[in-house]
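To make this tangible, this section ends with a sequence with its structure tokens:
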Amino acid sequence: MNIRESLEALEEQYLSPFASFSNRTRGRARLEPLCDIRPEYQRDRDRILHCKSFRRLKHKTQVFLAPEGDHYRTRLTHTLEVSQIARTIAKSLRLNESLTEAIALGHDLGHTPFGHSGEFILNQICEDGFAHYEQSVRVVEVLEKDGKGLNLTWEVRDGILNHRTAGHPSTLEGAIVRLSDKIAYINHDIDDAIRAKMFTEDQLPAVYTDILGHSVRERLNTMIHDIIFNSMDKPEITMSPGMEEAMKGLRSWMFAHVYKNEIPKAEEGKAQQMIASLYEYYLKHVDKLPPEYLQLMEKRGDKKSRVVCDYIAGMSDVYAIDQFEELFVPKRWNVM
């Protein structure tokens, strides 16, 4: 028996009957030989961790555009926090940690530069619209590896697609990531907003914090415990009604007081105009796209508008600014 088979046998002995077992995956779009060491979901986790799109997340906005300071969250640190929360829950419920982690690490690969403001403008100007959860799937199915994709298992791709609020993951591991995403961003965005002096902990509405907790640490501990105790040995991932209502209430308060606040949104209009300008430029000068994007049109027959959207969505904040300056900002004329 090889190492992978030994690990799969351990899953059969240890995991909950409601878990997603590695040797029962619905498989990959393209058949591949099995690894002699790693079960399938672990291979997917590794592929995501090593891909270029994952590395670019470190220079993509979470909430605060181009923040002054090293301690504000980026899309990468958000992803890591989601992964940590999700793994804690999955391990406690004896579900598949590798599948959970793969979904968590991949859920935001398709996010645009400048956070949801970038997503909003691309959805407005792109011919077929834009949604980051759909783009994340496109990244792993098509865009990575020069158009070959990562060839991930069906369960990982399903979890990535359905991590949004309106999503319905087909696995309990995907359902864990869907909730962990909200738990992570509600709490770390509060932490960042307090750091930005938008409000203090005491100014959060007590109707929610009296239930959830009066610090980031307390709220994380409370919500994670609630999910574990309400989902133990059940075929679903749930929160208690009061806890879920408080979480939704605090999330709504955050939308009103943080996500739509003038401090994080101060540069939003400029960022959106920049993205729109880049989009229009590359539509007119598609030959300026990197070769791997041109191949998407030549070999796959993808629309020009779709490929231009792919290119811009994949940019980091810094790279988008650099491209804009290169294309649209006059350079000083200097005679030596």
Summary: DSSP finds 16 helices and no strands in the chain. The two ends are 72 Å apart (CA to CA). The chain has a mean pLDDT of 94.
